[in-house]
Each structure stands twice: as structure tokens, then as C-alpha cells.
Backbone:
């Protein structure tokens, strides 16, 4: 197991190297010049050239890349061109809302989608099954921002039960935090619920046709025990895999959801940085998302051993 | 039932706010949403309007323009000019203090003017005429000119970006191409760095030591009396959400909702629209003078002959109440407004345009028109231009891109097929373009000009003459001559004025009419 973890951690290095090169080149080779953005609308070409020189953007690409990589290896992620803060400070300020949103979404999505998926499999072909599958198609198809606006209209504008936007830090006011998390988490959960419930249904259906399930039933075990102990546990591996892959959806969804609900998280920071061509911030945030994605999937791989004793690393 | 639900929700919200702490417990917190995120806090380093607005909260100015655009003293108590009009002496008001309690001195003001004078177009022009900035004593300083300059007060009272805000000397000595670190000003509000979180909110507390002028507030001039204890600038990127938050009472002021959402706000009882910026804005079409075919004035004129302001205004603003067809470069309703001749920009003359194109030998090469798709108010301008230019006989290649890509590409002087451009649109706050010096589109100094780089020594002679003229009547005539010259050479096109009201909750009063949304004088009941 330890060998496996070490090997996987070492494998992160080439992944991150590819991501770093890709992000760096993508930013430099696509149109957009931070110096022009900084200089503002009334600046002359000379003023823009001055700013470009001060930011080091006139250096050859490989020099810029080498400076950036060597800084990162020393733990220095650079300073944002615009915020007058280090990127590390910026990320530290913005990480809580994103972490909170992702956690609430995951908890809500998993606690809804897994039971619903299991039940849909158990009642295959029933009205419940059809409704669940219909909703999952809808959940995939409707964009997150549309769901967000609909929820806001109903629960914030019409009913006035929940706030329209904003974020309260958990340490400042817990209830304020919760009430501002409900609508964004619900919005971001919809696609996730659709995905996990479909996979859960398919996995459980496959397991339900196995011989050992028939044996368990023949032993006189209750439906609940058969479903929860024998079927779901054996169906867990593909479900966990999908949850791991879904982290990418979560990250992408957070960008939109945070913008719609005015959450000051990393998703919004990414959008702001991209729109203003804040190279140090974009590069670091994307690298960080890559690390998070790889590490979570490593944890998911490790968790397989808890559900399926046949899996050993 | 709905009213009851809202009442219960309001009571619940009140309870939550009360639990949130003393800062929000009082009903004197003004929550304001601007058109854009406030990321840069140095109003000299950037021209961004959100940063300018931040500047007006924490800094003060020597002079300021009132509601009728007349320049009035602000930090200055008295000023005089020598008979030969080359020595201006300014004496500061008593009791001016920085937020850290130190007194505002002449040295601070001199350093501030010098830093601003290295970045701002009007500041640069003023500094061309300045021989020396001299402190006479702690409260008195002089601007000594090489020769008379007609825009000394207009420059120091410039209302919009970059505004000559006064900063402590140590701060103002920062390289103008680097951002300042300190947010200490002498204005009516104090920035709370510890409570402010970029991307979330910026917090300002009333400056208890601020001594407002005794005059009633008017525009950006007069007494700046803070009537709320705390201002919070809330960062909210989504315009639909801004409107939702205002309707729900989560914010108090919205700088400028998009025109398509104004009907939604009009229908809400708890919301009022406020025309805080009566001068409005002006759309501009900008030609690239250094590459074909717009290096040819006849071809530029052919393009201007095809323009019809109403088409642009209908396509972008829609509601006639919020736009004005106006052929004056220096904004209708202001002292330097002159109508353009022969219905230019109002009524297109496609036949003459075609004839001019033929005479100029236009070879049918497509014009590269850059369209910004991320600034909603500009998005529809380019398709209108494409249609009008095509009716005049041009071939147009409209290329869509985000605004940041556009602002990068517009710096390129290469031909369009090598990454350059021929024409694009932008807009200005009217307060920025009220005279030939502050209006950067009028500069015609080649490489030193704004993007498009027109060169026209005759235009520069007229602008210089305007700058030196101290007689208002003669200066006005010169402004007219500048506009006429811009038309003669088809330097650029001004293609309509538009207005965007702000929106506020109905319990908010006192939003002053000015080119900038200012937070003093506003009361929340």
C-alpha cells in the first residue's frame, strides 16, 4: 500500500509539469496583455510598454517560465498583478467559500443520490425509477446558472426565505453561513445528483443479478440487508470512481455557481484573474486545482480497499 | 400572504443582522455595488472608474467641479494668480488632517500633484507648462508656470480618471508606475484594510475628524458630510444578481444596472431609480490612422458619413429616455458643445460616402472591425457599424473577442492581417471629455496619441492654443475649432450620448448628481 501511495505521489510530478507548461504557454500564446489591462483605457502605447517591461513580460518565454518554476519550487507563487497581494495570500483568503461549497455539495449530493439510485435499481421499471431517471436527464441538461436563477427567484425573491447572494464566514456566524450555502450547494448538486444516481442505479442493478445476491435472499435476509450490506457495498467501487471524476465537474461548476451567488471563492478568483490576464494567479490556481484533483482521486483509489477486500495495492 | 411572508423574512433577517455584530446592528451601513470589482486601490496607477470611486471615498481634492461643472475650491481655502498669470498661490483650509492624525501640508500636495502629473493626460499637459512647484509655508504653495496656462484650475479640479487626489508625501513619492501601499487619505471616509476582502467587500468608516466645507454639497464640490457610519462596497459580478439583491434589500445602492433590467427595477415598490450622472456617457468609433485604408482621411470621412447615432443608441440602450442623439464632441449640455455641420453623424449620406470611397481608391480590402463581446453596453455597436459601413460600400470583417483581448490588440500598429486592426468602439464618461485637453481622443501627436495614433500638427496647434487661452469666450471658440478640425480630418467619430441611472432602495436619499457616484450626503432612513 505504502509503495502504491509513494508511486502515485511521484506520478503527480510529471502530471503537474505538463499542466504547468500547458497553462504557461496557453496564457502567453493566447491574445491578451496584462500590461494593457493594468494601464487602463487612457494609456498610451509607451506607458503600456513601460508596464510590460516592469512585469518582465518582455523577457523570452523560456526565461519567464524558468523564473516562475524556480520561484514555485522555493514556495513563492508570485504576486498578483492587480490585487497587490501574494497569490498565496489571495488563495488563502478565497479557499474557505470554495471548500465550504464543495463540501456541502458533496454531502448533499451523495446523501440524496445514493439512496435514490439504490431505490431506483431495486424498483427497476417502476414509476419511481422512471421519475428518477427523467430527473437525472434533466439535471444533466439544464445549465447550473439556470437552476441557480430559478432557485433564487423562488426562494429568495418570491418567498424571501433565503438570501440572494453573498457569503458569511463559518467562524463569524454559523447560521448565516448555512443559509447562504443552501442555494449554491443545491444548484451545484443537481448535476452531481444526476450523475451519481444514474451510476448507482446501474451498478446496483448489475450486482442485484449476481449469484450471491440470490443466495443472500435464499438465506432469508431482509431486502434492506441485501441492498445495503451486499448489493451497495459491492457496487461502491464504480460509484466512488464517479464521485472522484466528478470533482472536476465540481471545480468547473464552482466557477459558475460562485459567480451567480456572489461567493468570494477560488472559482470567482479564477474568472477575475482570467478576465484581467493576471498570469501569476491563473497559473497557481490551475496548478492547485490539478493537485487537488489528483490527490482526491488517489484517496478514492485507496478507499476502494475499504469496500472491496479483493483490491490490494 | 406574500406580504406576511416578506414581513416574517424581514424580521428574521433583522434578527440575523442583529446577531452579526455591532457594525451592522445600526441602520447606518450603506451597501453599494459598483460596475466592476475593485481590485486596484491606487487611483493614479489605474484609470478604472471603480478605483476612482474608491479614491473619492478616502481622498480629498484641492478643487472640485460642482453640479454645473464650475470648478470650486475644496481643500483650498483661497487661491490667487499673479497679474502675469504665471504664479498661482494656493492656501489650504485650516484643520485638514490625514487619517493618521498628521496635518495636511503643502509638501504633501506638491508630491501628489507631481505623481498625478506623470500619469494623467491633463496632468501631463499641465506639467509641460510648470516651471516649479514651491512650498511657501506649511499651508501655502505655489505653481509657477513657464507661460500662462488656461486650465490650471480645471486640471486640479478634474472630476474623473485620473483625479488629482491628495495623498501624504511619503505615499505620493511612490513611483507612479507602481501601486501605492498605503490607503491613508484625508477624505470623509477611512478605508478599513483589515475588514476589506478583495472579491468580497471593501469597508470604509466615517472619518470623525473630517471637516467639511460650509457650503451645501453640489456635484463633487461643497461640504462632504458623511451621513452614514459605514460604507461597504460589495463585490457582485453578476448584474442579474445585483438587481435581485437590491430588490431583496440586501444592498442599498446599485451604480448602474443594465438597461434591459431597468423595467424590472421600475416595477419594484421598494426601489427607486436615481439619475446621479446627468452628463452620461458617449460612444466612440476609433480609426487606425497608421494602416490602410484609414490612413486616408477621405476613407475615414466616408466612414463618418455612414454613421447614424440613433442606430447605435437603439441597438445598445433601446429606451429613448436613456439616450440622446448629439453631434457635439464635447458633450451636449456643456459649455464646449457645438453641433456638427450638415447632419454629420445624425443622418447618413451613403451616396457621398460611396463617391468618396471611389475617389480615394478604396480597393475593397475588408476592414477589420473589433467587436467586444464582454462589455454588454458595447457589444451591439460593432454590428451596427458593420451594417452602416457595408451600406456605404465598405467590406467589413467583424472579429469578436473579449474586451481584454481587444485592449491588447488595439496596441498593435501592424496591418490587420498581421494581428492589427482598422476600427473599434469604446465609450467614455462624459466628464472625461469636456474639453480638447481632457479628451484624449483629440490628441493628434502620432505615437503619443491614444490608440489609432492620429498625427495632425494643426490639431495640436489648436489644442495648445486652447490650453493657453485664459479668456473663457476665446477658449470656447477654440474648442469649436478643435471639433471642426477633428471633423475635417475625420479623426474619430462620437456616435451618441447615453445615460444609465443608478438604483437605490427607497429609504436611501441624498445621492448627489455628479459624474462620479459619491457616498457623502447620502442618508439611510
Residues:
Amino acid at each position: 500500500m505504502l509503495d502504491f501511495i509513494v508511486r502515485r505521489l511521484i506520478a503527480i510530478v510529471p502530471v503537474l509539469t505538463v499542466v504547468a507548461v500547458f497553462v504557461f504557454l496557453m496564457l502567453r500564446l493566447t491574445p491578451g496583455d496584462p500590461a494593457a489591462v493594468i494601464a487602463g483605457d487612457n494609456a498610451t502605447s509607451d506607458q503600456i510598454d513601460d508596464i510590460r517591461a516592469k512585469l518582465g513580460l518582455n523577457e523570452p518565454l523560456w526565461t519567464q517560465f524558468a523564473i516562475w518554476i524556480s520561484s514555485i519550487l522555493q514556495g513563492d507563487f508570485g504576486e498578483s498583478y492587480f490585487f497587490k497581494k501574494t497569490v498565496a495570500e489571495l488563495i488563502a483568503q478565497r479557499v474557505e467559500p470554495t471548500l465550504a461549497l464543495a463540501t456541502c455539495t458533496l454531502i448533499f449530493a451523495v446523501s440524496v443520490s445514493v439512496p435514490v439510485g439504490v431505490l431506483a435499481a431495486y424498483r427497476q421499471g417502476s414509476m419511481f425509477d422512471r421519475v428518477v431517471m427523467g430527473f437525472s436527464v434533466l439535471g444533466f441538461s439544464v445549465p447550473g446558472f439556470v437552476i441557480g436563477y430559478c432557485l433564487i427567484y423562488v426562494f429568495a425573491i418570491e418567498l424571501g426565505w433565503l438570501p440572494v447572494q453573498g457569503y458569511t464566514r463559518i467562524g463569524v456566524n454559523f447560521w448565516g453561513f448555512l443559509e447562504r450555502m443552501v442555494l449554491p450547494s443545491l444548484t451545484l448538486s443537481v448535476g452531481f445528483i444526476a450523475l451519481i444516481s444514474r451510476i448507482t442505479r446501474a451498478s446496483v442493478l448489475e450486482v442485484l443479478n449476481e449469484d450471491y445476491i440470490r443466495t443472500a435472499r435464499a438465506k432469508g435476509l431482509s431486502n434492506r440487508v441485501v441492498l445495503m450490506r451486499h448489493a451497495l457495498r459491492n457496487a461502491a467501487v464504480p460509484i466512488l470512481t464517479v464521485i472522484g471524476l466528478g470533482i472536476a465537474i465540481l471545480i468547473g461548476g464552482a466557477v459558475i455557481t460562485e459567480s451567480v451567488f456572489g461567493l468570494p471563492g477560488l472559482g470567482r478568483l479564477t474568472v477575475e484573474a482570467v478576465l484581467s490576464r493576471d498570469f501569476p494567479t491563473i497559473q497557481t490556481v490551475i496548478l492547485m486545482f490539478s493537485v487537488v484533483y489528483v490527490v482526491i482521486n488517489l484517496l478514492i483509489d485507496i478507499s476502494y480497499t475499504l469496500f472491496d477486500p479483493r483490491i490490494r495495492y | 400572504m406574500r406580504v406576511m411572508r416578506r414581513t416574517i423574512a424581514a424580521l428574521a433577517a433583522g434578527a440575523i443582522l442583529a446577531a452579526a455584530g455591532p457594525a451592522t446592528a445600526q441602520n447606518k451601513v450603506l451597501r453599494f455595488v459598483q460596475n466592476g470589482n475593485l481590485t486596484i486601490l491606487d487611483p493614479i496607477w489605474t484609470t478604472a472608474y471603480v478605483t476612482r470611486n474608491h479614491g473619492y471615498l478616502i481622498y480629498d481634492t484641492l478643487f472640485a467641479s460642482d453640479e454645473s461643472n464650475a470648478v470650486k475650491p475644496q481643500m483650498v481655502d483661497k487661491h490667487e494668480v499673479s497679474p502675469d498669470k504665471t504664479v498661482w498661490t494656493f492656501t489650504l483650509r485650516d484643520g485638514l488632517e490625514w487619517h493618521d492624525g498628521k496635518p495636511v501640508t503643502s509638501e504633501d500636495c506638491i508630491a501628489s500633484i507631481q505623481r498625478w502629473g506623470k500619469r494623467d493626460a491633463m496632468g501631463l499637459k499641465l506639467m509641460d507648462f510648470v516651471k516649479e512647484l514651491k512650498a511657501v509655508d506649511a499651508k501655502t504653495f505655489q505653481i509657477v508656470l513657464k507661460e500662462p496656462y488656461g486650465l490650471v484650475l480645471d486640471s486640479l479640479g478634474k472630476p474623473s480618471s485620473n483625479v488629482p487626489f491628495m495623498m501624504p508625501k511619503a505615499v505620493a513619492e511612490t513611483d507612479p508606475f507602481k501601486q501605492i501601499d498605503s490607503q491613508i487619505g484625508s477624505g470623509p471616509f477611512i478605508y478599513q484594510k483589515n475588514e476589506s476582502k478583495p472579491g468580497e467587500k471593501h469597508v470604509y468608516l466615517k472619518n470623525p475628524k473630517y471637516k467639511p466645507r460650509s457650503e451645501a454639497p453640489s456635484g463633487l464640490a461643497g461640504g462632504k458630510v458623511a451621513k452614514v457610519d459605514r460604507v461597504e462596497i460589495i463585490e457582485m459580478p453578476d448584474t442579474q444578481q445585483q438587481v435581485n439583491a437590491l430588490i431583496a434589500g440586501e444592498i442599498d445602492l446599485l451604480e448602474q444596472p443594465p438597461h434591459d433590467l431597468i423595467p424590472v427595477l421600475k416595477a419594484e415598490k421598494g426601489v427607486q431609480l436615481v439619475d446621479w450622472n446627468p452628463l452620461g456617457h458617449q460612444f466612440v468609433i476609433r480609426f487606425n490612422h497608421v494602416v490602410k485604408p484609414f490612413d486616408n482621411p477621405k476613407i475615414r470621412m466616408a466612414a463618418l458619413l455612414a454613421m447614424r447615432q440613433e442606430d447605435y443608441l437603439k441597438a445598445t440602450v433601446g429606451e429613448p429616455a436613456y439616450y440622446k442623439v448629439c453631434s457635439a464632441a464635447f458633450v451636449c449640455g456643456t459649455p464646449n458643445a457645438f453641433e456638427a455641420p450638415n447632419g454629420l453623424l445624425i443622418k447618413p449620406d451613403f451616396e457621398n460616402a460611396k463617391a468618396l470611397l471611389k475617389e480615394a481608391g478604396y480597393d475593397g480590402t475588408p476592414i477589420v472591425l473589433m467587436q467586444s463581446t464582454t462589455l454588454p453596453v458595447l457589444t451591439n455597436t460593432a454590428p451596427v457599424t458593420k451594417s452602416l459601413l457595408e451600406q456605404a460600400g465598405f467590406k467589413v470583417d467583424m472579429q469578436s473577442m473579449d474586451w481584454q483581448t481587444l485592449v491588447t490588440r488595439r496596441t498593435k500598429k501592424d496591418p490587420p492581417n498581421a494581428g492589427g486592426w482598422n476600427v473599434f468602439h469604446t465609450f467614455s464618461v462624459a466628464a472625461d471629455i469636456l474639453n480638447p485637453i481632457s479628451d484624449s481622443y483629440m490628441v493628434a501627436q502620432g505615437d503619443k496619441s491614444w490608440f489609432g495614433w492620429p498625427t495632425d500638427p494643426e490639431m495640436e496647434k489648436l489644442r495648445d492654443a486652447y490650453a493657453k487661452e485664459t479668456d473663457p469666450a476665446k477658449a470656447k471658440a477654440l474648442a469649436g475649432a478643435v471639433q471642426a478640425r477633428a471633423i475635417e480630418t475625420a479623426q474619430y467619430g462620437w456616435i451618441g450620448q447615453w445615460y444609465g441611472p443608478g438604483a437605490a432602495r427607497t429609504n436611501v436619499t441624498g445621492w448627489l448628481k455628479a459624474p462620479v457616484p459619491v457616498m457623502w450626503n447620502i442618508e439611510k432612513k
Remarks:
- The two ends of chain A are 5 Å apart (CA to CA).
